[in-house]
Write the structure tokens for this entry.
Amino acid sequence: MHAILRYSDSSHAGRRWRSIHLLLVGVGLLAIAISSTDGLPTRLADLLTIAVVGVALVFTAEYVLRLWSVPESPRFAGLSESMARLRWAVSTNGVICLLAALPFFAITLASIHADNENAAVFCIVWVLGLTRHAPAMGTLARVISNERATLTSVAVIFIMVLIVAATGAHIMERAGQPKLFGNLPDALWWAVVTLTTTGYGDVVPQTVGGKMIGSVVMVSGILVLALMTGILATGFAEEERRREYLRVWDQVTKVPMFAELGTVTLSEIVGKLRVRHYPARIVVVRRDEPGDSMFFIAEGEVEVRLPRGGIALGQGAFFGEMALLDRLPRSATVVTTGPATLLVLYASDFYEIASHIPSLVEAVEREARRRRAENQGDRSRVETS
Ligand code: CMP
């Protein structure tokens, strides 16, 4: 139960539960949104209330099950069952989960109707639960933490421009528009609206000096937003690269060919490999298509489809090397027989590695020669018969 309810569970049941949860949130939000419109027929309003209570009831059951199963979590290892439950109940996740169940009690005990004005608050409560469908939320928090120094500098620039612009506009405009620029807080409102490039147009400078300040603020606003976007985007890319590196490092140990390499060489290769998960019966490479990559099998099995029949390749083996070495189209179709985890090495990286780690490429070449000879033998046998 704990595994299924875990946000990151990759099992079939876990994914199914997350889909159901998403559907329930959708139904609940739709029901509340429709309920908030005026003049609904009584039967429809009742139906919507039932929908909201139903959704909240499932979330109540979810809360109880989570609370019950949470001592299984490795996060609370070493704690007594009741202590683990208490710790979870007061954590952010626990509180969000409890809030999602609240509408049930609010509607049934305090007899609030789904069409009541207060019911709109349930929208916020349920929408908070959507965080579990965004696994990159943790990454975002890490990116903000990693980039906090740069982000703070940009925020400081933002505040400086804001205050200088507000003060300048206040000095220039206060005589002409005392109601709108008469004090600093009012001028700050104009500066925020302009610097964020929102521009409601409710407060507009009229003097030449005020307009000049306005122009500078607008351009600065674009620059500050562009800087923020750039910092966050590069931070995300960096974080993703680091995570991919760890994912590859984990898988690389399952391929004996790599296990023999020294740490320095290995870390160079790890930086060039990509982890790809394939479901069963998926064509990874197709015969006669151009080849731009080769694959190492970290988990699972694939079948190489040759004219004489299929050849199974298991964990630790590789395929797709012949197209890279011979610079010819793929010699066979390769299909996964079950779910497989493959490490992909793109052609450009393969050629680069060839000059740095000759032993690895020699081993690949040796196996490719053997395979070529095997296929050649097959072909000549077919031709003579
Ligand atoms: P490539 O030609 O790039 O794409 C198909 C792949 O199937 C090929 O590289 C080899 O990796 C693999 N392959 C071809 N023939 C054999 C064989 N006889 N035994 C094992 N694998 C093979």
Observations:
- Residues 208-252 form the longest helix (45 residues).
- The chain has a mean pLDDT of 89.
- The pocket of adenosine-3',5'-cyclic-monophosphate is lined by residues 285, 291, 304, 306, 311, 319-323, 330-332, 334, 371, 374-375 (CB under 6 Å).
